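# nightly structure sweep
# worker-07 picked up a monomer target from the shared queue
# config: single-sequence mode, recycle default, output format = structure tokens
# input follows
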Amino acid sequence: MSEQVERLALQYEVHVYSNRVVDLDLNRIVWHRIPALPGPHLFAYCWWLIANRIARWWGQRFDGLEFGLIYSPGINCFDADIISVHVVFGEYYAQVRRGLKLAANPVKSWPRLLHRRIYCQLAIALERVVYGGKTPILTVVSARVGKALRRYGRFEADLPIIFHGVDTQRFSVEVRRRLRTPARVALDLQEGDVSLLLVGNDWKSKGLPCILEAIGKLEIDFVRLLVVGRDIVEPYRSTLVRLHLEGRVKFLPLRSDVEFYYAATDIYVGPSLEDAFGMPPAEAMACGVPSIVSSKAGVSEIITEGVDGFILEDPRDSDRLATLIGLLCRDYALREKIGGAAVKVARQLTWDNNAAQLDQLFQEVIGHKANEHLAVPKE
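# output follows
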């Protein structure tokens, strides 16, 4: 959103309603801060849905604001003109619901699992209401998201695809080369180690169980795995012991300079069960890191199998994943070849292109609304 807003603000007067802003020049936009409600995300989201509508109504009623268009990333309101759909919870939940069963998880994780299940059900209910009607106009971040919206009566032909962009100055071969030595030293990676990386929250849906099984089947001692994100580690302890991976897997916190992790790694592995797009693989590609992604992730749509990356057709196929990891681990030249080709693909995903496509859609909607206004007969 920050990348989009800073470009759209060159052409429009932009008002942003949010709890917070990150990496955004507040001299170029008008920010309306919505106080965040502390506590579980479920309650915070319900509050946010109500509070941002009240704030916008107040601005129109008492401050004379008149909005030509309302744009939302996902379901943040019921009166948007355009929504960019980043995830379809109905599809996401269908893929991960098996892993959210209480009986399949440690008791310690039950509160988080219950929260996640209730939140998904609320999101699905809202999707039926918002996406199931004729309005708003929807744009999707991948063809995969477009297909998922069939469940709400939307058709791909009516859904423009606007891929996410990548900051190719921040995520680049040059930055990776500069940070590589200090990053590997800080993460205690030895010269002969081949490092795999997974970035994201909800590790089960991101495919961590499959990755662990694949590494266990490889039995290659010099493979290391970095798992970055926020989730509970405990459910994976027994798997680490069973596969003899203690000491070879590091669970690390998210950090603002995530390029630090891309610099340290050799292969990005993301066998997601469901992912609308998948920014980490795209960022890794921009850094020259060869990536293995799931066919269930939208980012797979920009990858040519065996040329600039690898696509795992079944995200639960640990045998095939082990084969692909082993292939890249043992062949440095192949890693360099795939990584070099990946950079060329990632450089086409610019935020300028993203904002230009969105602007074109804005112009169409604004023009349509203006024509409707002119068509209304005056009394």
